[in-house]
UniProtKB/TrEMBL annotation:
<comment type="similarity">
    <text>Belongs to the TRAFAC class TrmE-Era-EngA-EngB-Septin-like GTPase superfamily. TrmE GTPase family.</text>
</comment>
<keyword id="KW-0630">Potassium</keyword>
<feature type="binding site">
    <location>
        <position position="252"/>
    </location>
    <ligand>
        <name>K(+)</name>
    </ligand>
</feature>
<feature type="domain" description="GTP-binding protein TrmE N-terminal">
    <location>
        <begin position="6"/>
        <end position="125"/>
    </location>
</feature>
<dbReference type="InterPro" id="IPR027417">
    <property type="entry name" value="P-loop_NTPase"/>
</dbReference>
<dbReference type="Pfam" id="PF12631">
    <property type="entry name" value="MnmE_helical"/>
</dbReference>
<dbReference type="InterPro" id="IPR031168">
    <property type="entry name" value="G_TrmE"/>
</dbReference>
<feature type="binding site">
    <location>
        <position position="250"/>
    </location>
    <ligand>
        <name>K(+)</name>
    </ligand>
</feature>
<keyword id="KW-0479">Metal-binding</keyword>
<dbReference type="Pfam" id="PF10396">
    <property type="entry name" value="TrmE_N"/>
</dbReference>
<dbReference type="InterPro" id="IPR018948">
    <property type="entry name" value="GTP-bd_TrmE_N"/>
</dbReference>
<feature type="binding site">
    <location>
        <begin position="250"/>
        <end position="256"/>
    </location>
    <ligand>
        <name>GTP</name>
    </ligand>
</feature>
<feature type="binding site">
    <location>
        <position position="255"/>
    </location>
    <ligand>
        <name>K(+)</name>
    </ligand>
</feature>
<feature type="domain" description="MnmE helical">
    <location>
        <begin position="128"/>
        <end position="456"/>
    </location>
</feature>
<keyword id="KW-0819">tRNA processing</keyword>
<keyword id="KW-0378">Hydrolase</keyword>
<dbReference type="InterPro" id="IPR006073">
    <property type="entry name" value="GTP-bd"/>
</dbReference>
Amino acid sequence: MNDWDTIAAIATALGESSVGIVRISGPEAIRIVDKVFTGKKRLETVASHTVHYGHIRKFSTGDIIDEGLVLVMRSPRSYTAEDVVEVQCHGGIVAIRRVLETILEAGARLAEPGEFTKRAFLNGRIDLSQAEAVIDVIRAKTDTAMQVALKQVEGSLSQEIRLLRQKLIELLAHIEVTIDYPEHDVEDVTVRRVIQDGEVAIERIQRILHGARHGRILREGLKTVIVGQPNVGKSSLLNRLSRTERAIVTDIPGTTRDILEESVNIRGIPLTILDTAGIRETEDVVEKIGVERSREAIQDADLTVVVLDGSKPLSATDEDLLQIASKRMSIVIVNKADLGSAVSLDQIGQYMPVERIVHTSIKTGIGLENFEDLVEELFLGGQIEQKDATYATNVRHIALLEQAKTQLSEAVQSAQMGMTLDLVAVDVKNAWSTLGEVIGKEVGEDLLDQIFSQFCLGK
Ligand SMILES: Nc1nc2c(c(=O)[nH]1)N(C=O)[C@@H](CNc1ccc(C(=O)N[C@@H](CCC(=O)O)C(=O)O)cc1)CN2
Ligand SMILES: Nc1nc2c(ncn2[C@@H]2O[C@H](COP(=O)(O)OP(=O)(O)OP(=O)(O)O)[C@@H](O)[C@H]2O)c(=O)[nH]1
Ligand SMILES: [Mg+2]
């Protein structure tokens, strides 16, 4: 174990709560808490993973600060793999702060954000991808996001990466043998193996990356933009989905002026919805800018919802929007079904497959279920349902996986083109070390600092 100092921090959220926890980790953790805690036994003598009742005292005066329960977890069986003591005191800002203060007076240092988890990594209890997933668990906003992150904390991605690296090392060993003892193996057997194993590895990486888009959506929300002419019901849709009166709805066309943003949750899929100003049909330059703005919003979005007023015939502006949206993931809502239908389905069908068209009356709520079904179908497509699939959700991991994929493609190509085996080996070796960076092999201190500084205090 490293001879680091002993760190302490408040582990629970600040504010009024029933219980608060101060966590201490490091070689002096138990001795330091012993100096300020009086229970039946000295903590130095108690068994690991036991809980003790007693009083916490001010280090300088010996005055009682609070009563509490203390947990002792001895190295290496703890979160950080060091000796860890957790003091559970009363909640509320004053009690927790005073307990932390006395522990700092007794010799601990205030931990930096993420320092407990950083120690768990540096002590080898978890790898970097597991440590990074701890942030995702804390930040998860839906059950599914939480589930995916927790799986990663438990090592799902790490395991995939380790397996891939293992295969690449075996391949490298094979190449080395062929280079060093040419008589031992025929070169083209090795070349074939590079191509075959390389392609299998690329395929595995591809599968992890395929889940990446879903992973990002789970973390950041599906960027959704609502576009359409004035007065068609765009803001009404936003209000319905968010179950708020966030957007102002009136029968005056042009009610929404600025873009509004709202987070909603549809069947466990987080959506960040932008409600845009309606696009008018004029030759006016200012209005043309409106179409341009919508076009930009559509380019940025994961999902575009085009709202039409179904009680009116399709206009040229509607067709423009349908045209732009047809190139992207999109859904068409034909609204105001309660006012009768004047819009031609065949006409919309020229731009959009019928399965993507939903008829609604947002005013009465009719058809919204179908819209939600469609969102769910488009974005989960059964894939998130496979609970054991591994997703890369972290941009750093995704970038590294893309890079490793490229390096492997280069190895395969070099092999196919008949390059010498030592050149092929370089690409394979590169892919192996790129994958290593995902789990924290050979990463620099700067990167670690950057990653762990995103954590909250006490984690
Ligand atoms: N009180 C408390 N609750 C908590 C945490 C904590 O640190 N303290 N956690 C903080 O995130 C989470 C649980 N995560 C944890 C992960 C590993 C170990 C741990 O001690 N692992 C050791 C020993 C396992 C064992 O005894 O079998 C190990 O893996 O070696 C503890 C908590 C959520 N709940
Ligand atoms: N009859 C009927 N009226 C609706 C329906 N949906 C919305 N409306 C009404 O249409 C009017 C315009 O709705 P908004 O949601 O403000 O429309 P918008 O598309 O946001 O309009 P702008 O912000 O002006 O671009 C309001 O009076 C709504 O109550 C519907 O399904 N049927
Ligand atoms: Mg509006």
